[in-house]
Amino acid sequence: MAEPLISLLLERLATVLSQQVQKEVNLGKGDAEENIHNQQKIRCSFLGSPCFCLNHVVRRRAIALKIKEVSEKLDKIANERASYGLQINRATNEIQRPTTTPFFDESSVSGRDGDKKSVVSVLLAESSQETHGVDVISLVGVGGIGKTTLAQLAFNDAEVTAHFEKKIWVCVSEPFDEVRIAKAILEQLEGSTPNVDELPALLPKVSQSINGIRVFLVLDDVWTENHRHWEQLKPSLASCARGSRILVTTRKGIVATVMGTNHRINIETLSDDACRSIFNHVAFHDRSKVERERLTDIGNKIANKCKGLPLAAKVLGGLMQSKRTREEWEDVLSSELWGLNEVDKDQVEKEIFLPLLLMDDNNLGEASVQTSIQRVRHLSIVISNETSFPSSIHGAKGLRSLLIDSNGYRWLGATLPAVIKQLICIRSLNLSGSSIEEIPKEVGKLMHLRHLNLEGCRKLVSLPKTMCDLCNLQSLDVIRCWSLKELPQAIVKLINLRHLCIYDSGVAFMPKGIGRLTCLRTLDRFLVCGAGENESKAANLRELKNLDGIGGSLEIRNLQGGGIEDAAEAQLKNKKRLLCLELNFDSDSDSDISNLALENNILIEVLQPPSDLERLLICWYRGIGLPNWMMALTRLQELRLFHCSNLEVLPPLGRLPNLERLELQSVGVRRFDAGFLGIEKVGNANINEGEDARVIAFPNLKRLEILYLDEVEEWDGIERRVGEEDATTTSIFIMPQLRELKIYNCSLLRAVPDYVLAAPLQVLDITGCPNLRRRYKKEENGEDWHKISHIREVYIH
């Protein structure tokens, strides 16, 4: 048992026992007083009532024995605590606010140019003080509106920097610690922190350090309403030169008054355009043009929900960075967290910030949350084996979302049933990464539950049947639940289920009837069962037919175990929202190779995806050619072929206009030629004199990986140089945007054509290719080293 947990248990047991002792003693004391008061009556009736006296004596003896027993228990507890060397540490009531600095990313700021000019103007204006002194400027506004950002803009302004001799930034926050603030000022003025902890000794040093100097001091995030705090510190700042400024940021107007503000600037919310700009800057960072076009309209609607708060725009933008599909963005847009439609700015913190409680195992003591836990709507708890599960949560009956980061906490499974019983209003329950082995059957009572996240619960072996009673459940995530072998058969009752995520889990088949879940928008994996012990309760491919709403990514595994008719009935081409498709043909089939190749050729043809597909992965395919629909995927950005050993000829992939990444691993191809580039007929084209004709092969390819192609010897070049043209021929450009080339374990490959090496490569990685090593490695005096010497990163192993 962990030491802090033992300490807490012992302390509580001692308290309970002490209270019981006091109760018994008080009871005995009351009996004694009553005995004295009625002494005469007792004497008179003694002979007539011998049982009364006997009962009284027996009761007092029982009290004495109880006191002795409790005393011995307390001694034992004290000795046990001493043997563990434990100390009692009570949780703090203080919430540690994040520390701010003057450094920030100015490119992410939008809509504050006018406010910045106003602040800078006041900073550089003539002082309102007649003699030496310092003006106080306060920036006032609700949380998340951008007060700190505006202070940072002013602090880093070139004119401001030139105007003041010294600039100082102090994050004040709570509590208002005069000693810490004085030390921070001295450290930035003198470059070192004085080894003094007494305020009377620090303040003269502050006064001396700024004497006669024009100073700009920022006090960020001030909360104190106690004027005495500021009165102790302010006189030491009066010795600075005229024109010095103190810039205060605060959420409270009364703080501005307490600080003796000369200029108050109320920060207003941003325009919708500015919020959209901030949101887009974060959410669309490092995304392709295609993704921006697909998601911008939804992103604008999400940004409009931020009520003009730049912090909300940044946080939401960060949230959306990891969401790739349109469906995920639509889910955020439709989230019930946006239920507060009319929130005036004075209520923003009360209605939005206060219901969020993040308070971990170090600050979830009873005293710290008992006054606010009933108001909390969204709670995140971090616990570990060294602490007990906080009982305070039992008072949070209004919780809408709960995230428990158990960090390997061994007793979570035993605690969950009692906790779940209290969550009568819960909408979202996140137990991801916990060590639980089963979900309590009590979960079936959470009738409002919309989202259940069990991702990474690697020991989870089963889901209760009662979970299938959750008629409002919209998302279930069991990704990386490796011990979970199947889903409950009754899961088909969850008619409102929109997102079912089972990727990389132990689930071996899809439950029969899953095709009835027509509200599904996410189904990241479909496992074909084929023959076996689960065949009677497993769905086949044709159950995908009615699930045309699914989008994002879909992996179909064990395709060889499904029939061609079932695959045709799946009608993948109607899944218009699908962006990423993985076709995995791996199975335990014992069919002979010739039959397998023919079956795979037919099977892959009937699995035609929608034309807007962006990523395609084909694994363990035994066919001899790729399907006819491949070249119709004009929006395809990524194509990866793994373990396609019978595939000897590739289609003209160079004609795919948006392909950015191509990976060929363990493919049976023997040669790369003009047909692969899609330019085999260009040399015979009839071009009129003076006509400018251009052909670009792989116009957007940025990353090319050729791995474990044991049969490849030749990678053909073309007869003329890239870009060469005359009056009667066509200009040919090949891979004009290629940045990265990896070639692994292609032992027979003799050379890389010049048109590839002439591309704007930044990374060339060659491993396990002896012919290429001898040809290009500088240390081996490779004859073609000069052709790759310009590449920034070259790795030849």
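Above is the first protein from milestone M3; the second protein from the same milestone is given next.
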Amino acid sequence: MPLILRSLRPMPAPTAQQVLHNVFGYPAFRGRQQEVVEHVAGGGDALVLMPTGGGKSLCYQIPALLRRGVGIVVSPLIALMQDQVDALKQLGVKAAFLNSSLEPADAREVQGRLVRGDLDILYVAPERLLKPNFLATLEQAQDGAGLALFAIDEAHCVSQWGHDFRPEYRELTVLHERFPDVPRIALTATADAPTRREIVERLGLEQAEQFVASFDRPNIRYRVTQKANARRQLLAFLETEHAGDAGIVYCLSRKKVEDTAEWLREQGRDALPYHAGLPAAVREANQRRFLREEGVVMVATVAFGMGIDKPNVRFVAHMDLPKSMEGYYQETGRAGRDGLPADAWMAYGLGDVIAMRQLLDSTDAPEERKRLERHKLDALLGYCESTACRHQTILRYFGEDDHPGHCGQCDNCLQPVDTWDATEAARMALSCVYRTGQRFGVGHVVDVLLGKSTVQVERFQHQQLSTYGIGQALTQSQWSSVFRQLVAGGFLTVDMEAFGGLRLTEAARPVLRGEQAVWLRRDAEQPKVRKTREERKARPEGAGDDPLWLALKAKRLELAREQGVPPYVIFHDSTLLEILNHRPQTLDELGEVSGVGQAKLTRYGDAFLKVLEDVANGVGG
């Protein structure tokens, strides 16, 4: 009798650590993940700010599995929902999504599973969630199997000042009003202090605990290079460091996206365009190829990216200046989500500054918004011209002041910038702008300084000016650098109403009076980056032509194609790399590899052990 009673006792509920290891295959939580999971699993509300790749999804997925009922995840992007659900199904989690891509019959079937409690996690578009009939369905689910939590992903979409503003997000306070006992967790990877305050206010999260992780992405190497021939510079970067890698190249205009993608294809790269002007079917097909194939380069405007869950993006390149530090951080954050080394590379010049300011000034936004956007652009210009550690500069912008610098993962730390006393050159430049009437662009002002006899110089008789020819000690490219940095430093501004003419600011006065020194960075050719043996071992491309690496990737691709999912849904590159480096011989040993949970071990363990055995025996390698 005691034995029978003992066998009928309910099994103890799993802990967060057990779910992390058994379901997701990870040995330990990272950063503040465990704090968030335990707080939400205990019924508390939370606002979570974590960098892209920091593991935000686990912060709501694990509490949803620990609590009674179905976890409801509000997500603004169809592609992200599909990826997340595919990945969860691989882990044995009962997951589904509801959005406009489903046929009515399929949507009804999903809603039926929700009411019956036959789901662990359901992803819902905000537009669908706010419909009265769906809110009524949620009430049915609450009365039955229960609702575990509401997770509001990409919470910065609530902010009117953000570039991803979604008005539906402001109505999500209805969740707290109608389901006050269900915990809510709002998550975002990008939110400065004003946006954070707006999230709290708009979503009614005043009582929520805030978990702010470090915004540092130590695995990303940041580099900014001055534009010379941007296409050739990009190609050299790709050929030297990312041959065969997947990545994203951002351009400002749709035409430049298409031209750059075509040019890269001509150079032998598998490149695809993506922008809002392409037909929806083309965008969808290109995005699908990028997600499901190896080594595809997506050339895109900022219309592409939010919610892209591809972990093995090895580089993000900017051919044009982004709009803000927030945009730059979010876009570069799409590289290296798997935690392996990745690159953020940007080519930048004065033309970018002029184009971006022209774009800002041409909008119909209220003047308050324009001032804010100019301030954000100025912060990004300061970052571009900074001689300090770039990781440190980014973190200070987001309010983190404790990074020590010397990161070893940016151009300024790897190749310390040479600076020079440019006080006299700055005075010449500012004086020439003043004497030419503060109405000409940089090209003409440099011609005057160099003493060139051009049609425009003669037309305006600028050869008569005292500044004519006084700058011949510097080359044209050196003067271009001086003007670019004077604009970035706030000594000059670009007057869009005067067709890009340069104008002096108040900051120029003490320089012209000889009261302030000016030190500028000396532009130099970017050296080729040589990777150490340790770095090569840590990078997927460092595996090179290793027969086992190629065989592991081939098996992953084969399994992914059989199921119609992206390869990284089977295993991340980081998991394959660990298999390559440790070469497990048994299922138990394979189960200790990070990213191999119980469901995946059961499903794929034998297949990957067979690959290891075959290559070891020289079969098929």
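Note on the second protein: Confidence is low (pLDDT under 50) at residues 1-8, 526-533.
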